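> agent: user asked for a holo structure of the chain below bound to zinc ion. Plan: (1) validate sequence alphabet, (2) canonicalize SMILES, (3) run complex prediction with ligand conditioning, (4) return tokens. Step 1... ok. Step 2... ok. Step 3 dispatched.
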Amino acid sequence: MITFAEVEHARNRFPNEKLFVCTACFQLTALVQGWARCACEPAIELNDPLAFDPTVALLCVLCARGAVREGQPFWWQGCPCCLEFNGQMEERLNRQFQMSRMSNTNYALAKHFSKSEFELKRMNKFIDRWTTEWESIFKWGRLLARELWETVPEWAEDKYIGVRAWEKKFPISKENTEQAFLRFTGWPNMALFESATAQENRRLAGVQNG
Ligand SMILES: [Zn+2]
Ligand SMILES: [Zn+2]
């Protein structure tokens, strides 16, 4: 639970901020009952099992830098750089990370409408794998956020950090996305983003082959 004194303190420390990073759970909170609640605050009861909590705003699950918040399509859980990278992964390697909240609902629906035993088995396997991966990337994002926070001694006593201040201190960039991804996967150091020229060449090759 957030106390009144904590809210006052956070607002004085970070004036003009509407959204804050909670340094206990490293999710975002608006510090009032409403559209953004962190994991330390009571969740709302959802009657529909296929629905998801619309009030949660998040730090990017891959790089922990950009905030996904009001005014953005919040079913994506990544900053623009990480989403661009994820899109390239799909095109180049036919492989994407689970960075969409919407997939949760889609898979639940698919499961709901799967008729045969075989279909259901396949779907369950898929959902299990998907959930495990989603959980591991989500955990990773929170760990990385803690690590970033610990690099700023003047924030050590703060329970809540203003999101704009956070984004200013930890800007999103392609380099940061690459770093985060390489550390998450343990892949060897390599350039992950394609240059515009490489993308264009690949597109042209595709046109010629097709
Ligand atoms: Zn929290
Ligand atoms: Zn990101």
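> agent: step 4 complete. Summary for user: The helical segments are 4-13, 80-93, 102-113, 117-150, 163-169, 174-185, 196-209. Residues 60, 62-63, 65-66, 78-79, 81-82, 172, 177 surround zinc ion (ligand 2) (CB under 6 Å).
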